[in-house]
Amino acid sequence: LFRSEKDSSLRTSACRVLVRCDVEALTPHLPVLARCVGAEEAALRAAAIEAFRRVEDSQVLALYAAVLCGRLPDSHWYVRRIACQTLARCQPEALAPHQGPLVDRLRLRDQDVEVRIAACYALSKLPAE
């Protein structure tokens, strides 16, 4: 299903199914999900990030922090919010390199208050300097 370039609704549905799977079943699909995070369709991007939110191992999640950070300026508020929420699940050392884009959600006054709250929560995971 993930190889179907023509039907994004199939890929979106596949991502939504993975959200409901055990984390062990989800893990082998993370590289494909990372590609879906950059998809043209907002529903597919959101579904892929929602699947990443299920990852319990913060070291595994850290491998994809840059991919998730790339969605912080997304045109859709929901994608920005769940990207912030998912990044908040990373350990501080994995989150620190992405501090700038999270701060931008606040400094640029993201139009959605829920995105700003999620960015604040992620930033609260970092030690004070």
Q: Which secondary-structure class do the elements indicate?
A: mainly alpha
User: Count of DSSP E strands?
Assistant: 0
Mean pLDDT: 88
Strand content: under 5%
User: Terminal Cα separation, in Å?
Assistant: 46 Å
What kind of sheet is the major sheet? none
CA-based gyration radius: 14 Å
- Bulk shape: globular
What does this structure look like?
This protein is an all-alpha fold. The protein has 10 helices and no strands. Helix 1 packs parallel to helix 4, helix 7 runs parallel beside helix 10 and helix 9 runs antiparallel to helix 10. The protein is globular. The relative contact order is 0.12. The mean pLDDT is 88.
Quick rundown:
This protein is mostly helical.
Q: Keywords for this structure?
A:
single chain, 129 residues, mainly alpha, globular
Set down the secondary structure blueprint.
Elements: H1 8-19, H2 23-26, H3 30-37, H4 42-52, H5 58-62, H6 65-69, H7 77-87, H8 92-95, H9 99-107, H10 113-124
